[in-house]
Amino acid sequence: MTKRARPGAAGAGGPGSEPLTGDVLVRIRGLVPSLQPAEQRVAAVALSDPAAAARLSSTALAEQARTSVTTVMRFCRAVGLANYPQLRLALAGAAAREDAHSAERLRASGDISEQDTLAQIVDKIIYNEARALEETGAALDLDILELAVRAIANARRIDVFGVGASGFVGQDLHQKLHRIGLMAFIWTDAHAALTAAALLGKGDVAVAISHSGATVDTVDPLQAAAERGATTIAITNFAGSLLTRYADLVLTTAVREMPLRSGSTASRIAQLAVIDCLFVGVAQRSYDRASEALARTFGVVHQRRPHSPSRRTAANEANEQQ
Predict the structure, then answer these.
(1) What's the pLDDT at 316?
(2) What SS3 state is found at 199?
């Protein structure tokens, strides 16, 4: 496995590659942090009105972005397209898909305002969270997911790093892996995470979860794990973020966050969807063993429920002995 791919390299294609599948707008949003300032201006023009940008020549797009045609070409390669005609086609396709959602978007797009009714708030939250799941699924690189599944399934131990909201997602992954008998740990404290990472090595896997990909308390332990030779996996919304510099494998979500909903549940829901795909893929590789482990762990917890048959039997036996 090639170690430490450049930010955004996984599944990015490159010069001479086939046009990207999925939504090019999702990919552009994810790569914005890693682009040069002039390239970011090109991205801003493309994202603000994809349909209009698709109709522009490379020269006209460069003028709108206050940059050069060379920078536009470099931007095309950065998002995994071989040339400008491919970018125009991708933007036109993305615009058509956006138009298909126009009725919903008119009702539910935009950030929540002071004037919104409670019904409008619900509409906007549900719409944006549903779109986050749809776009995350469409953008998920199945080849990278398969490599991540294989790495975790064969790992000696798996350490998961995440803080804040991403820490809750990490706890979910840890619990799932632990329930099927894998040696998994979750670290949400920065010092504890660094300590754990320092003990990793070849044959181990480190999974770092960060929506922004810029959280130092998550980046640092992944870097330490990478330096120790562990296989590193990043789950983030931004394929060009700092976190991905230390990841062998990058799994991206596709969440459009609004100012009032920064750090919203949409990002966590998208992360949890990726976690579920990862876990089920791992469990499927040892189907019988995983099924048995899940049944056993469910059974022992179920016995603690007040109305479970085994608990009633135990209580009856205790009463009879008195």
Answers:
(1) 53
(2) coil
